[in-house]
Amino acid sequence: MKKLFTLLVVTMMLGVASINCVKAQDQDTVAAADTTAVIDEAASATAEVAEDAIEGQSAHQAIKQKFIEGGVGFMSAVILCLILGLAICVERILFLNLSSTNTKKLLAKIESALNEQGVEAAKEVCRNSRGPVASIFYQGLDRYDAGLDMVEKAVISYGGVQTGLLEKNLSWIALFIALAPMLGFLGTVIGMVQAFDSIKVAGDISPALVAGGISVALITTMAGLIVAMILQVFYNYFVSKIDSIVNDMEDASITLTDMLYKYNLKNK
């Protein structure tokens, strides 16, 4: 009986010990799982930060890569068209904005000076005003002594001169608009020829080889079309602005002629 009782006590003690060991192992497993989850979250966050950093540089790197893939020679020519075209656009924007004047206000000043102090005072107002309208008025007033017919001829002739100045360098912008896509198409044709030459050398039509060559060839066309579209927007703006200024010049010239006709009748 004593041996049996001792055996039962030892068995119970071994059972309790094994249960405690299992619990300890379960706690260790949970802790390890928690640690693994934390490590996974940290790795995910690090990966997201790295992806964000890559995305932040992707635009610049992609443009640089496409520039190299398209061929430095043709891509440089297309970019040169863009740079020169934009330089002319900046010059035209400044010139046309300085050429725009308040025609009605200028006419009011000239009429007031003409009626109060005469032609010389009106000419002085024109000299102190900027823009093609003031220049045309000055040329007309300067020939007042020769008669109203000479005034009209001077206004018409000098109006053509001022229109030419307003349209200056627009032909260069039109050239770059036409030239950029042409350079792009030429680069594409040369790239296609090189792609087919690669197929000929390889002796096999590989989809990857053909697709890669065609993709690289089309980059120059895409760049040329983008440059042409950018410059075309500026060109249309300049044409619209010049038309507006020319219309103001013509309308103001008629008003000036009528003004001088009334002044001539008044002083007879």
Topology:
Elements: H1 2-69, H2 72-99, H3 103-117, H4 119-127, H5 132-142, H6 148-166, H7 170-202, H8 207-266
Write a structural description.
- The chain is mostly helical.
- The protein has two domains: 1-59; 68-266.
- It is built from eight helices and no strands.
- The chain has helices at residues 2-69, 72-99, 103-117, 119-127, 132-142, 148-166, 170-202, 207-266.
- 25% of the residues are buried.
Quick take:
Helices cover about 90% and strands about 0% of the residues. The protein is built from 8 helices and no strands.
- How would a crystallographer describe the biggest sheet? none
Distance between the termini: 157 Å
Q: Give the mean pLDDT.
A: 74
User: Which term fits the overall shape?
Assistant: rod-shaped
What is the string of helix and strand elements?
HHHHHHHH
Radius of gyration: 41 Å
Query: Which structural class matches the secondary elements?
Result: mainly alpha
Low-pLDDT ranges: 1-43, 45-56
